[in-house]
Specification:
The protein has 5 helices and 12 strands. It is globular, with a radius of gyration of 21 Å. It has a 4-stranded antiparallel β-sheet. Strands 5-6-7-8 form a 4-stranded antiparallel β-sheet, with no helix packed on it. The protein is of the alpha+beta class and 322 residues long.
Length: 322
């Protein structure tokens, strides 16, 4: 596995960019048409060799990927100006946005053919998907997650979160991969987030975990970030960033808020080669702007010892007998 999978995944930090606007159906249509135009240009990109994983993309492709995310953001911003905070329904927003930009199309069933192709028809921009939800712990927020294929082996995902400001929806979070870097790794494989209400301050933080797609192995890496959303003139900030390894396959990664913090579960490697993998449990308590890993770390004694041996001593010391 390339070592770059495990190094810091550079992410773009976006300031609060959604000033007060008025509802304009013309603006919505223009934004939607622009998104569809850029999407068509992404779909037109073709692969060049059988072994190319398509992460080392050209500057022009980087610009198109960024332009696609900008266009999706603009379309969402414009549409939400016509949604009231007291009556906004996540499913209605999702259906309307999907229809506007041509997302969430039914998956096509490939026709039987004797011919084989080196690459799929579309290397970038295929399978455009959006989902809109009200986070369980914060129903006053609207979260829009958008994804599309990014290379022949995975997808790239972007997250937008909005809060009702009394007169309009304000964009608090825009979280995505760095589209301008030659060392680009899409936010794919999995992408999970959890909103973490902070009772003392009345505000909230965000936990996001995502994998790094690649073609040649079940063994990959993921990033975990604790994020402070944009507030007034203060931009979004990453408070904690962690990288670790995980294994694709038998366990679908999950991330959920728990009292005082959050918990991530996914498949991870085990020191005992007879078993190879096990369930990894990563529960964190939020303390100010930092994280402390807490129990549980496993569901049985064998997995506990394996995790204890692999963990940083700064964590493991808290799980050891005096």
């Amino acid at each position: 596995m390339r070592t770059a999978i495990f190094v810091f995944a550079i992410s773009l930090l976006f300031p609060f960019i959604c000033p007060a606007q008025t509802c304009s159906q013309d603006a919505i249509q223009r934004a939607a048409e622009n998104a569809k135009l850029i999407h068509a240009r992404l779909l037109a990109i073709k692969g060049t060799s059988q072994d190319e994983i398509d992460y080392d993309v050209t500057p022009a492709t980087h610009q198109l990927i960024r332009a696609m995310k900008d266009a999706l953001t603009t379309a969402t911003n414009e549409y939400l100006q016509c949604e009231s905070g007291n009556s906004a329904d996540a499913q209605t927003i999702e259906t309307a946005l999907a229809n506007l930009i041509g997302a969430n199309a039914p998956e096509s069933v490939p026709q039987s053919t004797s011919e084989t192709t080196t690459f799929p028809d579309h290397i970038f921009g295929d399978d455009l998907r959006i989902s809109v939800t009200h986070p369980d712990s914060s129903p006053q927020l609207v979260a829009m997650k958008a994804s599309f294929t990014a290379g022949s082996c995975g997808v790239d995902t972007m997250l937008l979160i909005y809060a009702w400001g009394g007169k309009n929806w304000n964009q608090m979070v825009r979280w995505q991969s760095n589209d301008d870097s030659s060392d680009w790794h899409p936010f794919g494989d999995f992408f999970e987030f959890a909103v973490l209400p902070q009772k003392e301050s009345g505000r909230w933080l965000l936990a996001v975990a995502h994998g790094f797609p690649w073609c040649t192995s079940r063994w990959s890496g993921y990033s975990l970030d604790l994020i402070k959303p944009a507030q007034n003139s203060a931009p979004l900030r990453t408070l904690v960033h962690k990288n670790a390894g995980y294994v694709r396959g038998d366990i679908d990664p999950t991330l959920k808020a728990v009292p005082g913090g959050f918990e991530l579960r996914l498949q991870t490697g085990q020191l005992d080669l007879e078993y190879m993998t096990r369930l990894g449990i990563y529960r964190y308590r939020v303390i100010g702007d930092s994280l402390q890993r807490v129990q549980p770390i496993a569901l049985n004694g064998k997995d506990f010892v394996d995790e204890w041996l692999q963990s940083d001593w700064s964590d493991a010391i808290h799980w050891s007998a005096t």
